[in-house]
Amino acid sequence: MNHWETLGRCGRQFRETLARTKFSDFKFEEFVSETINIFCSASSKEVEKLRAWLIPSLCNQKMAPEICLYIVNYTGVGKIYDGPARVGNLRIEELNKGVACGFGEAHNFAYSKVEPKGFFIIANPDVYCHQSCISELIRTRAANADAALVEARQQPFEHPKEFDESTGYTPWASGFFLLIDSGFFTQAGGFDENFWMYCEDVDLSWRAWLNGFKVIHCSKAVGYHFTGTYFEYKANRYYLENFWTARNFIYLSYKFWGNKAEKKAIAKFLRRSYPANFKQEVMRSYEEMKGNLPPRPPLIVGKIGRNLSDKVKITGFNLYHRERF
Question: pTM score, two decimals?
Answer without folding.
Answer: 0.88
